[in-house]
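Moderator note: this is an archived Q&A kept for reference. The question asked for a predicted structure of one protein chain; the sequence and the answer are reproduced below.
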Amino acid sequence: MRQALLKVFVYGTLKPGGRYHRQYCAADLVTAIPALTHGQLYDFPQLGYPGMTPGPDWVQGHLLTFRSEQVLVDLDGLEDYDPTRPMAENEYWREEVKVFDLNYQTLGMAWVYFMDEERSRALGGVYLADGNWPVDTR
């Protein structure tokens, strides 16, 4: 029986060229394609990474497809997400969302890491109206 491929939408340091892409993604990566999903993107300049909250805007990123679901364990650690902890103790939470290509055609569902709006404000998040966090400046 063939194992299903794991899909994750990334919008920050895990994007191709991002600080953590090679370490956390490269070994099991099958494909990386530019993609969009709904949310609101914030930059945390003092921290060097972004966070996405739920919202109606378009966030630009990449849809990463992996051979193994083990990748989620590593990504959960990076994103300080533990599904057994109360939500307030996690920096991010993981949820499945609909992802689209750059022509707004659906690519199906993928995991994404969201940040709580209150935490985003507390960390001094700077709203990115264009929904794009550029990895080349980090």
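Archived answer notes: Residues 70-78 form the longest helix (9 residues).
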